[in-house]
Specification:
With about 325 residues, the protein is an alpha/beta fold. The protein contains eleven helices and ten strands. Bound molecules: 5'-O-[(R)-(carboxyoxy)(hydroxy)phosphoryl]adenosine and zinc ion (ZN).
Length: about 325
């Protein structure tokens, strides 16, 4: 079955055609990121206006690139939670009008579960049940997946998301937005053992907290501002980035593998924008070897927001009989 996926939960406008839940025939992503950069974060009003401008062209491009005719489609799968309300509504409204005009089934799906599904795109089958860690700009959560219709949340962040902490630390260091890629790059020249940063403990062992470490970096930078300005070796900022990144990865590692032992799961899937980080990927692979756990990452391009993961997830859930109707709306309560 050919599924059209539509994703507009934040600053990306994305469309994709996926065959039978795994073969990606096209994946088009248009981002309004450049329009947000000067504000140091996503401005919801700009995000959804840009989506309104581009959605028709993005969907058209995805369909043409795939070589699939509209009448061959079996389903439209669209993100309807979580995300920015205006942004979600652009994708949902477009999907509903297509569904009505083509007489096609429609299904609203969860963006976070889409990030988990990303590991199934263009890949061999993954044995269920498994543990999934989703690390993105808006969420950091651990899930237990029996199948995609039965997902149990085991832990989540009690304050900032991990990607959000990367973005805020980059802002403190004046490195630009988004913070993840630039911190990863800057950290390559740094020593991760130089400064002792750590993520705060949480009452629940599988929850996360990234707000404290961001404040710790802020205090460190304020206390050492003169040295940082005069730093001829150009080592201090890389050391801060490497030490911060190390502490975040440590917390993610510890809790994900604890979830695997709790549920006796031998497979761990990691998704979301932060999962594109090569340092994190290597550390997870190293730890997995010693713990005899299979770690699976999506291809890097499918870690970031995209619509192929939404099309794939839609196919999987539709197979189990799930479908929406034209009353489909953004669901800001259900989003984990
Ligand atoms: O999943 P995503 O594309 O959007 C959300 O659903 O949030 O994730 C975006 C987040 C941003 O916070 C960005 O800084 C972070 O992922 N990110 C990274 C890297 N690439 C993107 N964080 C760490 N290292 C990276 N290489
Ligand atoms: Zn995302």
């Amino acid at each position: 079955m050919y599924v059209l996926g539509i994703e507009t939960s934040c600053d990306e406008t994305a469309a994709s055609i996926v065959k039978d839940g795994s073969t990606v025939l096209s994946s088009v992503v248009s981002s309004s990121l450049d329009f947000h950069k000067k504000y140091g974060g996503i401005v919801p009003e700009i995000a959804f206006r840009k989506q309104e401008e581009t959605i028709a062209a993005v969907v058209d491009c995805a369909v043409k690139e795939s070589g699939v005719k509209l009448k061959q489609l079996g389903l439209i799968s669209v993100t309807n939670t979580p995300g920015l309300l205006g942004a979600l509504l652009v994708g949902i409204s477009f999907a509903k009008s297509l569904s009505l005009s083509l007489n096609l089934d429609i299904l609203g799906v969860n963006h976070l579960y889409g990030h988990i599904y990303a590991a199934f795109l263009n890949m061999k089958l993954i044995n269920k049940p498994f543990i999934a860690l989703i690390v993105s700009g808006g969420h950091t959560s651990i899930f237990y997946i029996k199948d995609f219709a039965h997902i149990e949340i085991l832990g989540t962040t009690v304050d900032d998301a991990c990607g959000e902490a990367f973005d805020k630390v980059a802002k403190i260091l004046d490195l630009g937005y988004p913070g993840g890629p630039v911190i990863e790059k800057t950290a390559l020249a740094g020593d991760s053992k130089k400064i002792k940063f750590g993520c705060s403990n949480t009452n629940h062992p599988l929850n996360f907290s990234f707000s404290g470490i961001k404040t710790a970096v802020l205090y460190y930078v304020q206390k050492n501002s003169v040295q940082i300005k005069k730093d001829k070796s150009k080592k201090l900022v890389p050391d801060i980035c490497a030490s911060f990144q190390e502490a975040c990865v440590e917390a993610l590692l510890k809790k994900s593998f604890a979830a695997c032992s709790l549920k006796k799961a031998d497979t761990l899937v990691i998704g979301g924008g932060v999962a594109a980080n090569s340092y994190l990927r290597n550390k997870f692979f190293q730890e997995a070897e010693s713990k005899k756990i299979k770690v699976i990452f999506p291809e890097k391009k499918y870690c970031m927001d995209n619509a192929a993961m939404i099309a794939g997830l839609g196919y999987e859930l539709n197979k189990k009989g799930l479908r929406s109707d034209l009353s489909l709306n953004a669901d800001l309560i259900r989003g984990a």
